Amino acid sequence: MQFEDFDKRIIDAAEHHHPAYEEKAWEKMETLLDKHMPVKKDDRRRIIFFLFLFVSIGSGAFLLFRGGSSSQVKKQVAEQQIKDSKVAPVSIPSSDTKNGNPTKIKQAESETAVKEVVVPVDKNNNSEPVEQAANAPANNNATSSVADKADKIKTSNAVVTKEIEPAFKSKGKSQPLPANNNNGKKIKSANSLTNKSTGDAAINSVADGSVQKNTTITSDAVLNPNQVTQEVDQKSETTKVVNFGDTSLQKKSEKQDIKPAEKNSALASKKENKKAGKQKQFPLAFTFSAGPDLSFISLSQIGKTTMRYGAGLSYTVNRFTLRSGFYVSRKVYSAEGYNYHPFYANLERVDGDCKVFDIPVTINYNFLQKKNYNLFASAGLSSYLMKKETYDYLSKDPSTGTPYYNTRTWSDKNKHYFSVLNVSAGYERKFTNAISVIAEPYLQIPLTGIGNGKMKLNSAGLLFTLSVKPFSGKK
Amino acid sequence: MKQRLHSETTTELLSADELTSHIRACALNSRESQKKIYSSFYGYAMAICDRYANKPEDAVEIINDGFLKIFREIHHYQPAYNDVISSFKGWLRKIMIYTAIDHFRKYHKHQMAADLDSVAFQIPAYSIDALDRISHEEIIRSVQQLSPGYRAVFNLFVIDDLSHEEIAKHLGISIGTSKSNLAKARRQLQKILFKEQQIEIKKNAV
Q1: pTM across the whole model
Q2: What is the three-class DSSP state of A230?
Q3: Partner-chain contact A3 B123, CB within 8 Å
Q4: Does the CA dihedral A375-A379-A384-A389 come out positive or negative?
Q5: Which end of chain B is more exposed for a tag (fewer CB within 10 A), N or C?
């Protein structure tokens, strides 16, 4: 028929018709694919992973820096306190007693400056404090003047009962010292200055009332209220003497027997040192791990035992320890063809050999903490970065039964963020405060398909870890 | 449908292993592999699709719908025989033809001609010889200029080798309608080609 030739010509034309590729056509195709077959992105998981890693590293660095700086600050504070614990002059403020007004004694508050205490003046008050003041040891220059002043005090019937309160450089409550108060007014006693004071007092007077250091006075010392103010520094277990009024009164102070005060200061400094020592301890540890690792798809399809090794960090707070790290392992396993996705009907078996970078983030609960060992349980999530995947495929022709072998390799293709569940328990043996060894059997269960075949790749093993705490102090 | 084996004249950009690898990746919705397969078989697929379309954008719509079907079903795909590329091309071709049919049914179904009791059609001998002077691209362009119903039946019967029964089944028409549309398609194509020939003669004369 004629049209056969005609058709033949048309067919020939169709066979030789080859339109060129157009990128615009692919752009439309891609839009269609994004609409009907969108690609699931792991951006969210990736972002969370890096955010968590960044926060962990940042927190660790911040705590490390703070721990170091605060320990230095404490050390400096302790040193300064030790320096300030030397003998300082005591001063008691004087008030106008000429008019019989109540004396105002500025007392040194504990840890603060002078505190003012009003003491009623009793003209009939005995002169014992005055006598004591008069009898207080003084330097050669001040002895006569002290005696003269003591006489003046007697005649003026001005009795000053001194409240010497221990003063502390830091905050604290004032503790007034007992004074010989024959008018019945009781004044609380200070810690150490009161009971064992011998009555000897040496007072240095300062013309302008400024605080004079390196002078001491006992609680029983009585001073001219018009002329002397007193500050007591309990930490230093000494008192300061300041003269505000009569500059002619020259008295020097002497160190008294303040053994109890010294003891208290020693105890206080020890406590501070202990605190400083404790604060030196920083619960951050570096870990180095290695151990056997076994991969399997199911209990009936066990793979090969390989080595898992890596390093990490841990941070302990109370009974919890946060751990992370970077581990390298090789997953060698076999699986039936139906485990491989997408499913291929003729696929009989797949043998996988994958190099994996494992980044776990886990939390330990130390349910038994002893001096020499810990027992803990741990759970967390791992991210698998499939560095290299090699798969050997065994297929069979369904009609003839002839086997076909094929091998494929992928590198840096699949990444599974927070996709593997980590559970473990462990025993930690402490050798020193800084070094311990951990034996930890673990199980890793995938939450998604792993690798190019999206297979449920499980792992189990025993990890041995050396933990080193470089910032541990003495306990 | 008797499968016609066409000559392998398109450039083979993928080897058999590469194609197999990309097919597996496409099963996992890999954009990269999807683009690779799309670009490699674009010429082959478009050569089928643009015969069924009058406008380039319609042809792109048919080819993209066809590839969408392919990528959706590629995880079920199994090569029919050992030649991976030929098997894939055969599957691709079938998908594209059926997509073109769907496109016709969606937009041009009402444009099928009615049955004719008898059709007597003869192509003048000079027209057949004249086809030798017209390029392949012009012939294809002439096919594209056919009326939608004629174009569909002509492509399905003459080029894609479907029987009238199959055409009637797929297009939802009777066998007689299929035959009459084929006859009219040939007549119309002849006129178009004759016009092209006349234009060609005039060009050569100048």
Answers
A1: 0.41
A2: strand
A3: yes
A4: positive
A5: C
